[in-house]
Amino acid sequence: MTRKQQSEAKAGAVRETRELGMEVRDAGRHVWLAGLGAIHSVDHGSRELFSDLVARGRRFEARQRPVLEGRFRKIGNRVGAFRDRLEHGVEDRLAHTLKRFGVPDRDDVHLLIDRIEQLTRKVEGLSATKS
Cα(114)–Cα(120) distance, rounded to whole angstroms? Predict the structure, then answer.
């Protein structure tokens, strides 16, 4: 994935997250206003209206919860995928940079360990035959 594609993917995820945040904020504001309206109505002696608002609120929440959870899941999946791509890109760049500076990687170290073990066995074998 090119830097431009990574940048576009990140910008899309950020834009989508911002839009979802605005929707959640607006929904919270509406709930707050409905609550204030309900309190005002209750103050004027309308307990039935309050109960009706609570029932409507429960129905609304039941309808909207799956939608919001689905959106949060979708954004979470996108963020996770972007994070994975970003980690992979960083790891590749780091490995390339370390290689340029001559720093051995894991495979190089394992090859060296194997070679040292072979040489150790040979030295031990030669020492045993001379004793």
Answer: 10
In angstroms, the CA 88 to CA 81 distance is 11
**pTM of the shown model:** 0.37
Q: Tens digits of per-residue pLDDT, 122-131? A: 999 888 887 6
User: How far, in Å, CA of 96 to CA of 104, rounded?
Assistant: 11
Residue 58 φ/ψ, nearest 5 degrees = -65, -45
The token pair that represents 80 in the structure block:
């996770």
Cα 37 from Cα 50, distance rounded (Å): 9
Span 87-114, pLDDT tens digits: 888 888 888 888 888 888 888 899 999 9
Q: Which residues contact 124 (CB under 8 A, 6 or more apart)?
A: none
Both tokens assigned to 29: 């504001």
In a 13 Å sphere around the CA of 38, the CA atoms on its Cβ side amount to: 17
Per-domain boundaries in the chain: 3-100, 104-131
Q: How many CA atoms lie within 13 A of 60 on its CB side?
A: 11
